[in-house]
Amino acid sequence: MNLNELTIKEATEGLKNKKFTSVELTKACLDRIKKRNSEINAFITVADEGALREAKAADEMIASGKAGALTGVPFSVKDAICTEGVRSTGSAKILDNYLPPHEATVIRKIRAGGGVLVGKNNCDAFGHGASNENSMYGPVRNPRDLSKVAGGSSGGSAAAVADDMCIYSIAEDTGGSIRQPASFCGVVGLRPSYGRNSRYGIMPMASSLDTVGPITKTVEDAALVMNAIAGQDKMDATTVPEPVPDYLKALGGNLKGVRIGLPKEYFDAPGIESEVKARTLEVVEKLKKLGCLITEVSLPHTKYSIAAYYIIVPCEDSSNLGRLDGVRYGVRAKAACLDDLYAESRERGFPEEVKRRILIGTYALSAGYYDAYYKKAQQVRTLIRRDFDEVFKKVDALITPTSPFTAFGIGEKIDDPLLMYLADVMVGPAALAGMPALSVPAGEDKNNLPIGVQVIGSRLAEGKVLKIGQFIAI
Questions:
Q1: Taking the complete model, does pTM exceed 0.70, yes or no?
Q2: How many CB atoms lie within 10 A of CB 386?
Q3: The predicted structure's pLDDT at residue 329
Q4: CATH of domain 3-250
């Protein structure tokens, strides 16, 4: 096995036992990036010189006995997450030259512990998309089939992990942006509960939904990363004060007596592929044999989740992206007056999907429409969250497909925004409710494309979700 193909656990053990150095491990990842990135386009920026400096420092930490669980392990970061001194574009040309003077809290924790940042991953611009075709740096291609999308918006992160360009990645999930690409690329993706991880340093899309989490090769690796990044942050008032459990200790054991709910709305969703449904039900049978108690449940307001999501997100988008005007930072167009400067900077710097959502959000928040759109969508969101709360009084977790279909062709849905939005139908409800959700690889379809199964838990029940997920992952 090549060094870049290792999991976090394997890499950490190898470093600890001096089988190889962090510099050697990092060079293996950088070599893989150099070999494959021109085809897959998973990285916008490769921090090769910085990575080797950090790897050398990590080797010194290991030699001094100060190593942690992620010390010396190369990782990548979605480009919509700020990294101090490392170019962070959000996959939009308006930030093409942006070097953040600050760093996201979750990244600071990892780098302070000796993590090695190898580069920034391509994504749908500012998280706007479900296929990673809305990047102004080109689409990300699925490592399993280069004619297929990697999923979005964190497609670059999922593709980088799936193709062994890094050992793990830190990404962001607003309405499915970690879980859906993880499903398409055949890796593990965790969206933690809203407030479990700090959002400080994230380029905000929809502030009431944005959540930071890991994309990894195994469920155990996801637990390791969560141990390092979870917790309250004084820089983010939305983080919760509850103590962080040891997620590794939640793994293992057995599932005897665990109550699993099957929400019928997910299995009857329009457009769900028969192979995806069949594979998910096979997983359910496996869990049943392991001692789980299976119950059909209902989340009646799930059918309104996409409509609510695509009102709330554009509204919060239009507010958050107002700061990108070409004046304070980023790329500035040459113009004769201030109005033209704003207009031309945004015209050249934003892709079409970003403009579309800003316009929708601005309209929905305008005088006379706020109550009819944004307020109503938030009321529906409350009903969706209550559905989950009621169901979790009866079951410990829910099992669903992650996506109604496997990875589709590049260009197949890009000209139909409504069809593209439906790609979030399985992942959107948990995001609106703020619940933790995990996508794990559970097999392949007839075209050898990965199928992901989703485990949804109650608020702050990441440990339980990870425990169940480890018995599903293939």
A1: yes
A2: 13
A3: 83
A4: 3.90.1300.10
